[in-house]
Prior knowledge:
The protein is of the alpha/beta class.
Amino acid sequence: MKPTHLKTHDNHSSLLSSICIKPAFPIFFLSVVQNITAAGALRRFNYETDHAALLAIKNQLVDHPEGVLSSWNDSVPHCAWAGVTCGRKHNRVKMLHLNSRNLSGTISPFIGNLSFLNTIALHNNSLHSQIPDKIGNLFRLQELWINNNTIDGEIPGSLSSCVNLRILSMSYNKLEGKLPAELRALSKLEILHVRSNNFTGPLFDIIQNLTFLVTVHTDFNGFTGVIPNSIGRMQNLVNLGLASNKLSGTLPVSLFNLSSLQILDVMKNQFHGEIPTHKSFNVSSLKSLNLAENDFSGSIPNLTNLTQLESIILDYNSFTGRVLNNFQRFHNLRTLVFSYNYLEGDINFVNTLTNCTQLKGLELVSNDFSGKLPQSISNLSTSLTFLTIGDSLISGILPVGITKLINLQGLYMRKCELTSSIPSNIGKLRKLQYLDLSSNKLTGKIPDSLGNLSFLSGLYLENNQLEAKIPPSIGKCQSLLYLNFSGNELNGTLDTEVFTGSAKFLELDFSYNHVEGPLPSEISKQTHLGLLVMSGNKFTGILPEGLGECTGLQYLFMDGNSYQGDIPSSYCSLASLQGINFSHNNLSGPIPTCFSKFPLTYLDLSYNNFQGSVPTNSVYANASEIFLVGNSRLCGGIPELHLPKCVEIENMQRNKRTVPHALKFIIPVIRALAGVLAP
């Protein structure tokens, strides 16, 4: 049994213990409560910060009353606002999707307060002004989409602080200046879209070390410099679009060792030199190659191993030599363009294109090709929509089988040495919109079946040896705007159906043929005419008065015919005329005074029978723009025209009138004297 004092001590200890221990639980609880309260306060502070930032962003945007921003109010939490996405754990704004919402206004600098943002999508709106410098606060930002707006100014250097950025899309704005050197810090960047802005300065100095880049679109700017050999380090590159800049130099071999590269577009720059030989190529994934509008020279490289190619565009360069490529294994090829170079030899490589079942465009215009036109063009893909082989020395016949290319929209074989006739069934090409067979040696008649081509807008058959009448079926081509049959052997009269059908011509040229008879008055139906050329034919009668209804006429050439009579007064309605040629006819009467009110820069009335006074103002004041020789009864005008004064003409005419009157008195006197003097 313990002593009492010990018990007392124990009790005291217990009491002390209870006194000392009891406060520990409230202190711990208070600490937890304080932490929870602090965390709650922080969350509330962050929540309110995001809320305030969003309202500040809204303040600088203009939206329709019923637009996306109508939901941005205090009636619902901002995480439920349209276009706003918050994170699950922290309830912070993570994504801002306001693209394609018809918004205008500016990007608020308060966007930099949304520190948890990883995606900004403001593309396809009408935003303007500059990118706020505060955007550099968003170190979590991975995607920035502001393309298709009217944002101007320079890219802020602070953007380099967004070190996690993977996608930077700024195309189709009004941004300018150089790319900031600080952008080199964006080492995770995969997509760079800055096309169609006003950027200048070096490009590859900034991006050559961004080795994660997959897509680069810098087209339609003013970037300068060369493509460095170090581009070979950008092994992730799939799409490289550099078109329409001021880049120069040669293409390095390392560019063609980017094994992932699928699209290479350097069109419309200042590159020169030869393309590396195919032995240097390690771009077997390449699908599109566009080198157009530069100054590349030498031979076209052997592309035979690049069988994945879908598009090869090399026009407007200085390539020379023969085309030795074999395209038999290019089953995906859709477009092949070699136009406007100095290529020579035959075009038998076309024979290897017959296996390209997806071919849609073949353009070989303006080279030094020679030899016969391969008849295999009839066996090209029926998917073909454009076939252009003009401006070369290609000869031979136009194959009848060409009408099997039923999807053709454009057929251009101008200025070759083609003979034979136009296939009579060319009307089978129902989708044809443009047909140019001009400046060849084609004979025969113009096929009636052309009238079946309801989509045809341009028909050019000038400078051939075509004969017979102009088919009236031409008037049925309801989309036909431009028609040129000049410089052939066409004859007969013009049928009214040419002008009364569904065709609404803008330009009509039948010059230098043998068309005869009067010009049908129904030409008045062609009220959209801007150019009418009927020169060098055998038209007779008077100028059609109904032509005055074609009030859009700008050029009217009727020279070299046998028209007679006055210029119809209705022509004073042709107030848009800039050029008139009525020379070498039998026209008479005064020059219409209204001509001086027209915006004429060319007026030729020479070799007719016009009479009266010539004005001195407007077109008549410039001797290099007006031609009046061969009209002996004209007077006045500026001295350079060397016309007699109108007073002299009047005196001559007065004298001609008075001489016969005097003879009435003189002749009887002479006769009387003769009788007196007779023996």
